[in-house]
Amino acid sequence: MKTIYILLITILFSSTSIAQSPVVDIENKPSFRETVTNTYYKDINNFMNPFVGTWIYTNGNTSFKIVLVKETMQYTGEHYTDYITGEYQYSENGTEIANTLSNTDQYEVGINGNSLLKPEHRPICTDCPANERRVQVSIFDNISGLSGKFTLKLTTANGQPAIEGFIYGNAPVIVEGNPPAYTEMVIPTGTFTFIKQ
User: Fold this and answer.
1) Cα 154 from chain centroid?
2) Long-range pairs of 94-101 with CB within 8 A, sequence gap ≥ 24
3) How far apart are CA 39 and CA 29, in angstroms?
4) The pTM is what?
């Protein structure tokens, strides 16, 4: 009987140890190829939380709306991580150019990523305090099929919470004998100030 009791405790302890994933601060996450299976890369300091919400850039008849959500402990196929995901709507001169707001496909989101940038990380931020983190995500242009990087920095504009967003595009993949339909993203690149709604 004593042997069965010890065996049951050993099995219970072993299964509990296996079920728990190590938790690592997302700032210490290695490159994707070096991540540890079943590790949870967590936004321990909640740097991503202030970016959550609906944000709008306007300039005359041009508007750019982004809706951002924080996803926690999402499985990548190898490890778990926290990240920002979202969708966008871009209108120019009152005409809608691109809109992914109604997207429900979790594998083809418009905005997605989890890189936390310190001031010295590119693009370098000379006016960022040492303890501030920017978030860098990818933005996918569903019309051109191209994507770019989208760096998000918290700021204020006219006393309101805002995000300074910097978008720069990636070049298209050129296949010999098959020129790309688009050579740049349809959504604009550059710097935009998004006001929290």
Assistant:
1) 14
2) 94/61, 97/143, 97/186, 97/187, 98/141, 98/142, 98/143, 98/186, 98/187, 100/140, 100/142, 101/65, 101/67
3) 10
4) 0.84
Nearest to 164 by CA among 90, 66, 85: 66
Cβ contact 165:57 at 8 Å: yes
Block residue for tokens 């070096």:
34
Identify the three-state secondary structure at position 161: strand
Pairing of strands 95-99, 53-59: unpaired
Q: What is the pLDDT along the chain (197 residues), one digit of tens a residue?
A: 444 444 444 444 433 444 557 999 999 988 878 889 999 999 999 999 999 999 999 999 999 999 999 999 999 999 999 999 999 999 999 999 999 999 988 888 999 999 999 999 999 999 999 999 999 999 999 888 899 999 999 999 999 999 999 999 876 666 666 777 888 899 999 999 999 99
Please, what is the Cα angle at 62 between 57 and 68, to 5 degrees? Answer: 35
On the 0-12 / 13-18 / 19+ scale of CB atoms within 10 A, 186 is middle
